[in-house]
């Protein structure tokens, strides 16, 4: 059992309000006609357990959640791509949440990375039609 609520009647959004994709995605999610739990990672601390559950829900690694091109990441690690272990990736997200690569929408057991705010609209269209698509 995880720590993140996976209610089919509620949308949970992990986003950063300090970047444009996060702001726009939040606006799309808030406009949806469903209950919403929005977690702004620039204001709310997300635990390592939650980050790990998000990565697992998307069938990815914790490192896949980090934008290695983000200025904060580059300031710490330089311009070269780095290969960190899962614990170190968790520390990056915990200490520098602004490095989150994309907002994540959770509805039921579906974890959807939002690369572009319109991805949320596609997800909702698929969801309302009852279509099960892999988003991982």
From TrEMBL:
SUPFAM superfamilies: Thioredoxin-like. InterPro entries: Arsenate_reductase-like (IPR006660), Thioredoxin-like_sf (IPR036249). Belongs to the ArsC family. This is Arsenate reductase.
């Amino acid at each position: 059992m995880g720590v993140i609520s996976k209610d089919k009647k509620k949308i949970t959004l992990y986003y950063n309000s300090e970047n444009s994709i996060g702001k726009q995605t939040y606006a799309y999610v808030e406009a949806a006609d469903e209950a919403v739990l929005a977690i702004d990672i620039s204001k709310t601390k997300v635990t390592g357990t939650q980050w790990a559950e998000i990565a697992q829900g998307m069938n990815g690694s914790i490192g896949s959640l980090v934008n290695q091109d983000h200025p904060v990441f580059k300031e710490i690690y330089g311009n070269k791509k780095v290969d960190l272990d899962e614990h170190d990736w968790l520390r990056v997200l915990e200490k520098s949440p602004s490095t989150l690569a994309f907002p994540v929408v959770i509805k039921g057991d579906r974890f959807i990375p939002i690369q572009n705010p319109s991805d949320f609209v596609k997800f909702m269209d698929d969801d309302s039609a009852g279509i099960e698509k892999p988003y991982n």
